[in-house]
Amino acid sequence: MVGPAGPDRGPAGWQRRLRGVDPWLVGTVLLSVVIGSLVLLANIPGAEPGNDAGFYHAEGLFLAGHGPDPVPGYGIGTGLFVRGPVYPALLGLIYAVTGGGHLRAVAAVQTLVLLPGTAIVAYGLGRRLGGRRAARAAALAFVLWLPATFHASFVLTETLAGVLVTGATLAVVVALQDPRPSRLVVAGALVGLASFTHTSYQFFWIPAGGALAIALVSRSWRTRDPGWWRTAAARCGLVAAGVLVVLAPYQGIRAGGGYPAPGTGGYDLGAGAGWTMYAGSRPETSWRVIPDDYVLAELAFTPSGFEELRTRVASGEVSLSPELRDAIRRRAREPRKEDRHLTEADFRSAVMASYVRNLDDTPRMAATKWWRYTDPVPTYALATEVEELDRVSRPVYHLAALALLPMLALAILLARPGQRLPLIVGSAGALFQVAALLLSYPEPRYLFPFLGTLLAGAATGGVLLFDRITGRGDRPGGSRDPASCCRSAG
Question: What is the Cα Rg of the chain in Å?
Fold first, then answer.
């Protein structure tokens, strides 16, 4: 029996762990810091952020005690509920430590801390899914993905979401391969935390946690143990407990305080999921959000703007689908003025009708959206020092991004015994979010949160293809035999 002073405890244990760190990972992290430092020197944002970035900036200032709440009238920190609490909380911490809204500090934290952190987590995920070679390839590919490094200079959620989503995915895979109670709870909690980084990811916990729960039930059932269902129920309960530890207090405070639901529109914050999905369902705009969409969204969801929208639609100035025109006429007959506005349900109905009406155009729509979603065009203007580099490298990254899903599918197809289920479960959350965002509209920056997960899966596919061609082999999880992962989770 090993006591508190055993071989894995104390300074000696830490020294052994440090000696076991892959030098390739150390070099990759240092490379990330060097590249990030060079980009920071050339690409520090100087102007006051606008649009989404402006909201996060204002909410961070408010939380740090340096400005008013950007969504007044509901109580303290309303923006934490409208857009999700994690990123504004990070900004509030940075601004509190630095004594003001220092954009350089935000860029430095995101570029020099969060990006290397994502590379480390992507390495861990690749190690679990495809072995050391896949881990090295995934981490290096992430570090060399310059569009993500350029993007980290801006006050936007994707860089933080990247490390949390990839970390949650790694925790899910670890819990699947070794379902100890602590690992199951941690996996659930990290999945819940990742769901708070942006309103677009607020349901991430459902596919990520659900896929883990289904896999745990399946493995327990396959043991043919008479008490398999108790084991499965206990493990799923621990995952659910981890999710609820994060989600329940937040939702309880939101409901009890009367705060707006995440993603809702009408508070000068845009329209929420309904409008953006509607904007992404219209062939006449080639499924791209046009500038007027943001103006119309605020008109649609507020009683004060509803009459203006109705007038513009009636005059032919604004073209809406037949379903939305019917909804406008129906809402205009509401007896109470405060009820005269469109709802998220109106837009969701219009979305479904639009997709059904244009069903024959689905292949072209899917191809067009995926092409745009993987196009690494920066959302915001870059400094002149990196514009030329971005222009030259863009086709390379575009082709690489287009290959991510095919390589992930190849990994699942070529997976060895014990390897396929972690690949499927680990990619479930990312694939769900990619599909949901493609149903909305293809904003290229929304790929970055899932880049670490997709690169780990794609690298695994590359390793498996190489091994199939050359006859070589590698074992997922480093020294672990794939079959042993199944046995430990059984």
Answer: 24
Helix, strand or coil for residue 274? Answer: helix
Handedness of CA 185, 140, 374, 364 (dihedral sign): negative
Count Cβ atoms below 10 Å from residue 2 Cβ, excluding itself: 8
23 CB-side CA count, 13 A = 0
Q: What is the pTM of this model?
A: 0.86
Show Cβ contacts of residue 248 under 8 Å, excluding neighbours closer than 6 positions: none
Q: What is the pLDDT of residues 370-387, one digit of tens each?
A: 888 888 765 455 555 566
Separation between Cα atoms, residue 121 and residue 223, nearest integer Å? 31
Tokens of residue 25, six digits? 């990972």
* Residue 466 to residue 461: CA distance in whole angstroms: 9
User: Could you write out the three-class secondary structure of 207-252?
Assistant: HHHHHHHHHHHHHHHHCCCCCHHHHHHHHHHHHHHHHHHHHHHHHH
Residues 116/40, Cβ–Cβ less than 8 Å: no
Q: Could you tell me if 239 and 205 are in contact, meaning their C-beta atoms sit under 8 angstroms apart?
A: no
3-state percent helix, strand, coil for the chain, nearest multiple of 5 = 70, 0, 30
Residue 78 has pLDDT above 80, yes or no: no
Q: Which sequence spans correspond to the domains of the chain?
A: 22-176+374-489, 282-357
Q: Name residue 130's amino acid.
A: G
> Using DSSP, how many helices (H) and how many strands (E) does the chain show?
24, 0
DSSP 8-state symbol, 285: G
Q: CB within 8 A of 444, min separation 6: which ones?
A: 147, 372, 373, 374, 375, 376, 377, 379
Q: How far is CA 449 from CA 88, 123, 154, 169, 294, in A?
A: 17, 15, 14, 11, 24
Between 222 and 412, the higher pLDDT residue: 412
Q: Which percentage of the chain shows pLDDT scores above 90?
A: 39
Residue 113: CA count within 13 A, CB half-sphere: 10
User: What is the secondary structure of 107-142 as a DSSP string?
Assistant: HHHIIIIIHHHHHHHHHHHHHHHH-HHHHHHHHHHH
DSSP 155-198: S-THHHHHHHHHHHHHHHHHHHHS--HHHHHHHHHHHHHHTTS-
Distance CA 483, CA 219 (A): 13
Which H/E stretch holds residue 410? helix 404-414
106: nearest Cα among 141, 154, 69? 154
What b/e string do you get for 313-330 counting C-beta neighbours within 10 Å, with b at 16 or more?
Answer: beeeebebbebbbebbee
Q: What's the distance, CA 121 to chain centroid? A: 14
